[in-house]
Specification:
Length: 260
């Protein structure tokens, strides 16, 4: 029999293989109360649909006969997984995660392919002497001028990430005068400067946002983030830019095609 801290969740086989094995339920079938509640809330999210307002913590606690702290823990996990999001109306059902290909394409192109409207807000565009380590990556001399472009990324007016780009001033000397901060940077390089991307090295990892990053993106500091480090080169193989891309883990997933 399940203890006061455990409940039994029915065994279910994932239909498409995308869910965890046995939906995360151990073989003995007993799980903590919050996980039992989370499994019960999941069908409710499907009924409400994207944008549907979830009942209050008090209402959920009464409906499922659990404590409000159990409700909070279940909702925290659903928020971290991207199933729910906070809004002015309360807690609402989130839409599906946006899928970005791990490919040499702009954020603008990736978001538009999914029927979403991309956007960016400029945080800063500054000119600095390039430190030695970055200078080696950009193949310029230490102390030479480098641009630092920082922007918040949007999808349908929702803040979803933070982009930080470093590029030598000699490659784009009029960046502060000719570039529209809410437009595609790669589009600017290609159309205005005649610079086309050749290839790039990328590294993907999970991190927690710093307090500053969380404030800019509008998320709790404890929200997992997907961080991409990119070093790209032009068609001649010459280093072009160094980019740090931070995406909300609850709103993004990444895909790549593998060939044998």
């Amino acid at each position: 029999m399940a203890t006061s801290r455990e409940r039994t969740v029915p065994y279910e086989i994932p239909e498409d293989g995308s869910a965890p094995v046995r939906a995360g339920i151990p073989e003995h079938g007993r799980v903590p109360k919050y996980y039992w509640l989370k499994a019960r809330i999941a069908p409710l999210l499907d009924e409400l649909g994207e944008g549907g307002v979830l009942p209050t913590e008090r209402e959920l606690a009464l409906r499922y006969e659990v404590s409000r702290e159990t409700v909070r823990q279940a909702l925290r996990e659903l928020l971290l997984e991207g199933r729910l999001r906070r809004s002015g109306r309360g807690t609402v059902v989130a839409g599906p995660k946006m899928e970005q290909p791990l490919a040499l394409a702009s954020y603008t192109e990736g978001v538009r392919k999914q029927g979403r409207t991309p956007g960016r807000t400029l945080i800063g565009l500054e000119r600095h002497p390039c430190p030695p380590a970055l200078a080696r990556e950009l193949a310029i001399g230490a102390g030479e001028s480098v641009w630092h472009l920082e922007r918040v990324l949007f999808a349908d007016d929702e803040r979803v990430g933070l982009e930080s780009t470093y590029i030598a001033v000699e490659r784009v000397p009029r960046l502060d005068r000719d570039f529209e901060p809410d437009s595609s940077f790669y589009g600017y390089l290609r159309e205005e400067m005649g610079l086309c991307l050749g290839d790039a090295d990328e590294r993907l990892e999970t991190v927690l946002a710093t307090p500053r990053e969380a404030l800019l993106i509008g998320t709790p500091p404890g929200l997992p983030m997907l961080l991409i480090h990119r070093a790209s080169r032009d068609e001649e193989g010459r280093p072009l830019e160094r980019v740090r891309l931070l995406y909300r883990g609850d709103r993004f997933s990444f895909s790549v095609r593998l060939e044998g």
